[in-house]
Amino acid sequence: MNQPRDFELPVGIRPDQCSPEEWQTRVELAAAYRLADRFGWSMLIFNHITARVPGKDDHFLINNFGLMYDEITASNLLKIDLDGKLVGDYVGETRVNRAGYVIHSAIHAARHDVGCVMHTHTVAGEAISTCATGLLHVNQDSMQLTGQVAYHEFEGLAVDDGEKQRLVADFGDKKVLVLRNHGMLTAGSSVGEAFMLMWLLEHACRVQVAALSMGQPLHGAPEVLGRIAELVPTQQGIITPTGLGGLPFRSLMRWLDRQDSSYRN
């Protein structure tokens, strides 16, 4: 019987092979992968977080399909163009997941305000994606996403280029996309914004699942929904000039550095 062959970890882009801005984006994106794994948001080698390469609107960074999230580093992230073609020289095996390419390239091509796209298949997120009601704005976390949530119907595995146009049309100019029967997606101007939107969304989903499990009527607060959405940008620097999440994401990177800074390699 054939024995499984070890996946050869790729040697990719080094700091002296790209701009300082690209390297910083690589470090932040690698941190997002490691943090997602530590928070229990990863799913083996599947799912993706992508970031646009600064100064190169038609290039974005994506994980090498086959690596687990805790193996992602700044240097082994792959740079591809909007056609899915690899940009740069890499030593070792390189693979781009088809579904990851279809979903993320569609958004990066259509939304020039988006610097990072994050997609997850968490239990709570998938559970809410299957509910007819979708995300209910009945807790403080979900209320902060009022007016920012869009929905895209399930079309099967996202491997067909034809789905791109429909996905983008459904997403519009929102920051959160509920992929029906599939999972959750956030888009931000920066890695930090996309990550913190996902943190907020995931927490809101978990609260909703817990609340529904009690079998009691849910108590909403529709009279304050609009006010909460308006107040979010002013709350204690959570939203910075670089978008939602600047301060908390930097604190998470410092926390990650204390645990394991190898993502920076």
TrEMBL record:
Ranges of residues in domain Class II aldolase/adducin N-terminal: 27-209
A GO biological process held by the record: monosaccharide metabolic process
Protein's UniProt name: Class II aldolase/adducin N-terminal domain-containing protein
Organism, scientific name: Immundisolibacter cernigliae
Alphabetized GO MF terms: actin filament binding
GO cellular component, one term: cytoskeleton
Similarity remark: Belongs to the aldolase class II family.
InterPro entries with a match to the protein in the record: Aldolase-II_Adducin_sf, Aldolase_II/adducin_N, Aldolase_II/adducin_N_sf
